[in-house]
Write a structure and sequence with these properties.
heterodimer; A: four-stranded antiparallel beta sheet; 5 helices; B: mainly alpha
């Protein structure tokens, strides 16, 4: 069984790459089918329904803040005194493991001053360029946004990741 | 020079500046993790500006979409790879810290 959504995404990429050349449609369909099948093995579905309009709704804000991220780090790099106050923040994330956490990690690796270095038992390791900014607060806000978009896993009892502690400590 | 030429020039110059700043960060920043910040974020913005600057000069929609796709793939790869490198280089005291210690 080939997952339709993944097939459509891969086939759309093929159409863009080949400028929808009619001679390549059959090959593209075969390759997109193979790719969708392979993606099932590498990244099995987690049973959540991602809200596509929700994702698109997050995009403008994300784009704008990633622009700020680039400007922020460029400013620090070209500044003669190089204003950095680096440190680690360990954040107890409320998001379940899997795609939601991956999204949070990707997002915070492009936003101003934060870089995620994986998680362990629900603790997210965040490297900060400026430990004086309120990064824990920003992460909490973003978690809530991602949570709304990503949907719930049907079978999830809500045990792991429901730690509402949200505490973060700069180390 | 047409307004579109000016637009393209300005965007490419801005894009090149962010690549320059990212490289400067790579050279100047004190440790691996700070350097990763510089590379992922500044290059992402630099490439985005260059792509946006070139878009109106592309004759057809397919090429425009292809350039945007390149940018999306580069951003996705940069964000992912930066996290993988950051995770491998995670300081040992963070990894081994017992869960309830130190709060």
């Amino acid at each position: 069984m080939i997952p339709l959504k993944r097939f459509v995404i891969l086939f759309a990429v093929w159409l863009i790459l080949t400028a929808a050349d009619p001679g390549g449609l059959a090959v593209g369909a075969a390759i997109a089918t193979g790719g969708a099948w392979l993606s099932l093995r590498l990244l099995p579905p987690e049973g959540r329904t991602v809200s596509l309009p929700g994702l698109i709704g997050l995009a403008p804000r994300f784009l704008w803040r990633s622009v700020l991220g680039g400007v922020d780090v460029a400013w620090r790099a070209v500044h003669p005194r190089m204003p950095l106050k680096t440190g680690w923040l360990v954040h107890e994330t409320r998001l379940p493991a899997g795609m939601p956490r991956v999204m949070l990690g990707n997002e915070f690796s492009l936003l101003p001053g934060t870089l995620v270095a994986g998680s362990l038992d629900g603790r997210l390791f965040v490297h900060c360029l400026d430990t004086e900014a309120d990064i824990a607060g920003q992460i909490r806000e973003e978690e809530a946004r991602i949570d709304r978009v990503m949907g719930r896993v049907e079978s999830d009892g809500g045990g792991e990741g429901e730690n509402a502690g949200d505490r973060g400590a700069v180390r | 020079m047409t307004p579109i030429d000016l637009y393209t020039l300005a965007m490419i110059a801005a894009g090149a500046f962010f690549f320059f700043a990212g490289t400067l960060g790579l050279l100047r920043f004190p440790d691996l993790h700070s350097r990763l910040h510089a590379l992922t974020k500044a290059d992402n913005l630099g490439l985005g500006l260059i792509v946006l600057g070139l878009l109106p000069r592309m004759g057809d929609v397919a090429t425009m979409l292809k350039m945007l796709l390149v940018w999306v793939l580069v951003v996705g790869a940069a964000a992912t790879v930066a996290q993988l490198i950051a995770r491998i280089a995670l300081p040992g005291h963070l990894r081994s810290r017992p869960k309830d210690d130190g709060r």
